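Lab notebook page, bench 4
Experiment: in silico fold of construct C2
Operator: M.H.
Input chain length: 628 residues
Purpose: comparison with the prior construct
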Amino acid sequence: MPDKKELQNKRKPKNTFKTLIRILKYILVYKFQLSVVIITIILSSLATIAGTYFLKPLINNYIIPSIGKKNVDLSSFIRMICIMGAIYLVGVISTYAYNRIMVNISTSTLKRIRVNLFNNMQDLPIKYFDTHTHGEMMSCYTNDTDAMREMLSQSIPQLISCIVTITGIFVAMLVLSPKLTVLVVLMLVVMLMVVSKIGGKSGLYFKKQQKVVGSVNGYIEEMIEGQKVIKVFCHEDAVKNDFNKLNEELCTAATGANTYANILMPIMGNLSYLHYAITSVAGAYLVIGGSLDIGTIASFLQYTRSFSQPITQISQQLNSVLSALAGAERIFALIDEEPEVDEGYVSLINVIKNKESELIETKDYTGMWAWKHPHNDGSISYTQLTGDVQFENVTFGYNDDKIVLKNISLFAKPGQKIAFVGSTGAGKTTITNLINRFYEVQEGKIRYDGINTTKIKKDDLRRSLGMVLQDTHLFTGTVKSNIRYGNLNASDDEIIAAAKLANADSFIKHLPLGYDTVLTSDGTNLSQGQRQLIAIARAAVANPPVLILDEATSSIDTRTEALIEKGMNQLMDGRTVFVIAHRLSTVRNSKAIMVLENGEIIERGDHDVLLEQKGKYYQLYTGMFELS
């Protein structure tokens, strides 16, 4: 069983009041519906109480006086029964109404919460996704929102109903017999002690269960994604053992939660029977003594039976509410995560040149771009986008304890192809992440067309860059829509031209529906090489001035690589290109090759110069041929 102290730490949400207030802000949008819900809840509870109270006049005024008589006029009795039935009917309709309305309120509220959750997630920096598991975030959309749905649609209405019912029954009991109500108060104290003890333990385990469910779901999702790797390394047994540990933890928490939850109802039921028996004996004594009539004791005993159930329900619903609030805190924590900060003010615009070769801003697509740079004096300058990139003494680390790049200085003139080579972890991919401003540098500057990238709006900066990653991601949709992802305004002809440029057109045409073939599950119906060709086509259709190829041909065989080399050269023609490659044959024609080691550039030059130096590049290059 989980450690008691550990469970105590999970007992309640960190800030119950603040979380409740925030949820109320969401649901108070539906003020009119909520007013109707409260009114119908009160009507439902009062109808049950009033219907039970009718037992007193029915017995005292109609049944007892009719005992032993013949040809009794039952018209008044039937009329009273009809009134009683009408009251219960109002209760049934009210119960249906508030449940139906609360379903609408809860689903609409969760819809808005999910929208906020997803929209904010799109604004989070890459660092957040690098430091949080997918399962952890998915749990917010599934387990936590489902717990909130149950709380809004069921728990809260039932809590209000139970409170109104208990209050109404207590008042009715006081009206019927203050003496017998004393017994009710004493039994209420006993019931509350039992509910507090057992319900508290149940709540601890329910919250533990909620947390572990998220861990189990996250683990399962990760294992599904990595199933091929698991099988390749025959890791099935180890995976099963890890899953069994998590599953055992979930089983323990669920067993504890349901054990206490399931024994609460029978205990409360037995206490209610005991209460009923004691009340019956006391009531009979009062009836014999002449201080109480039979109708009153009948109604009172019925209230006694109805009194314990709401108390039990309150305990159970409170556990559900606390569990949902813990989930709501996780949801709001994700919503409140600091979005990616963008203090840039230089924007990317379409331009044309007039007769004097001056850049003129236009809203029409021209294929010519410029940076619009407002200045403090109110003037605006325009700098044509050419793809001139410079690193000036850049130092960077993902955290301050571990510096990845140390005092990096380099430049790439428009149209140049710059390659980065080096061992794994040398900092090659980090450089490209800094160009995109996925991360901010600690020291130094990165200039783009002479402008510090911190001044450029991030969306505009990234729009000017094309990127092909080693880990290709394809979205569910057609081949055409996946290529068009690089440029949503691209025509079908431009998509086909980009595919031909990447040498993807031939295999796409052989797919069942050609460019309209639907890809699912990240394109698993394609080979890894075909997926990367589509990614290259996606970058080609974007037509960016700067192109980043991060192991873009790593999953393409040498024959296919040779076939697309001409197309890639056309794609790279006139563009600034940054290439990261382990296959050194792909970087031989680079204008400059940077050899990185431990975050520093230890060699730079073109292919021939580096071979003549017989340094690290020479060792890597000759080693490659020896291996082949």
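Observations: The first helix runs from residue 4 to 9. Residues 1-12, 624-628 have pLDDT under 50 and may be disordered.
Next step: discuss at group meeting.
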